[in-house]
Amino acid sequence: MISAAIKALRGIMDLIYPKLCHACLEERIFESNNIFCVKCHAALPYTDHFIRSENEMMNHFYGRVKVERAAALLYFREGGLVQQILHHFKYKGMQAIGEQLGRVAAEKMVETGFYRDIDCIVPVPMYSAKKRQRGFNQSEVLAKAISAGTNIPMEEGRLLKVKKTTSQTQKGRLERLENIQGSFIAPSSTDKRHSHVLLVDDVTTTGATLEACTAVLHQSGIEKVSIFSLAIAE
Ligand SMILES: [Zn+2]
After folding, report:
1. Domain 44-233 adopts which CATH fold?
2. pLDDT digits (tens, 9 = 90+) for 132-177
3. Dist. CA 80 → ligand 1 center (Å)
4. pTM of the predicted model as reported, rounded to 2 decimal places
5. Distance 61 CA to ligand 1 centre (A)
């Protein structure tokens, strides 16, 4: 009773006292428990991948590596809202972005059955020195939120990045694949009881990183790999 009253009061307070929006960085009006203002929240370009199994995410992997299911939550456009949000998430340390959007993704996974028979969640790893420099791995923040929302354990040690790669942004698909091949390993001591892994990444452009990670997971004996990416380039 009391907690419901506090929650209602907090909702009202959020409307009265504007907070900083994690997307537009303006002081604006919020709905309770949201980190995006009402305007930005309404403008988020969601995909329909969770209800459409043949989708743009899956297209990246046909004929390349075997993937059970794949989905992205949002569309990413150069100069668009999602690019802005990803920038704040990765480079301004706004981890709440990953926490909130990971929670939204988990809700969709449960609602649509996307999460069924997945045994563990594995974030795309970051090279250790880079992670130290940034302070966190954004894919791990997402994976953790999805784990909390689906009750599926996260096991970040199943995949490691052992080689530093140069920036991928200016490279084409083949170049990217060559650039990252051999940079991921799945430790051989890995317990293979879990046979269906959900691989989690922040943004997908060519899919080369996810393709390399999926191949390594299969080689290590993991039978099924499904994929989630927070955003996909349009
Ligand atoms: Zn906003």
Report:
1. Rossmann fold (3.40.50)
2. 998 999 999 999 999 999 999 999 888 999 888 766 666 677 777 7
3. 13
4. 0.88
5. 34
